[in-house]
Amino acid sequence: MDADKIKRYVYKNQRLSGMVGTIKLWPSRSGVLHGVKQVELKGSSIEITTYCGETFTIWDSKESRSARWLRNRWFRKPCPHCRIPEWKLEKYSSTVFTGDVRKL
Q1: Domain for residue 52, yes or no?
Q2: Which long-range contacts (CB under 8 A, 24 or more apart) does 46-49 make?
Q3: Contact present, 16 and 61 (Cβ < 8 Å)
Q4: What pLDDT does residue 4 have?
Q5: Range of 15's domain?
Q6: Which residues of 11-39 are buried (b: 16+ CB within 10 A; e: fewer)?
Q7: Considering its fold, how many domains does the chain have in total?
Q8: What is the pLDDT along the chain (104 residues), one digit of tens a residue?
Q9: Which is an annotated GO molecular function term of this record (predicted)?
Q10: 70 inside domain
Q11: Which of 10, 35, 9 is nearest to 89 (CA)?
Q12: Is 56 a member of any domain?
């Protein structure tokens, strides 16, 4: 099977911590896509550490701005300090977010 035709399926109705933990990418409010080094669950919030050294503490929600941006693959540019490889961006762009668990 060609590498171009391989699709990765991710369940879209999961909490943000599960989605970020699987994809290992984080869209900031300015539209910059960061590479995620560590995701730590702290009750109803999560702490995300990126490769460029930034740390975010956010609510673990299904319907947040960041969850929506990840599902719809919205971002302006990748972070130059995180140095996200091109293969990871291509893999992310070919990811299919499905609502049906049976297609995983």
Answers
A1: yes
A2: 46/16, 46/17, 46/20, 48/20
A3: yes
A4: 61
A5: 11-89
A6: eeeebbbbbbbebbbbbbeeebbbbbbeb
A7: 1
A8: 555 667 778 888 888 999 999 999 999 999 999 999 999 999 999 999 999 999 999 999 989 999 999 999 999 999 999 999 999 999 999 988 888 665 55
A9: aminoacyl-tRNA ligase activity
A10: yes
A11: 35
A12: yes
**CB burial class (10 A; 0-12, 13-18, 19+) of residue 94?**
middle
- Helix, coil or strand: residue 23: helix
What is the Cα–Cα distance from 68 to 70, expressed in whole angstroms?
A: 5
Residue 60 falls inside a structural domain: yes
Whole-structure pTM value = 0.82
Token pair recorded at residue 61: 């929600």
Q: Which tokens hold the place of 10?
A: 């991710």
Residue entry with tokens 């984080």:
26
**CA–CA separation, 77 and 17 (whole Å):** 22
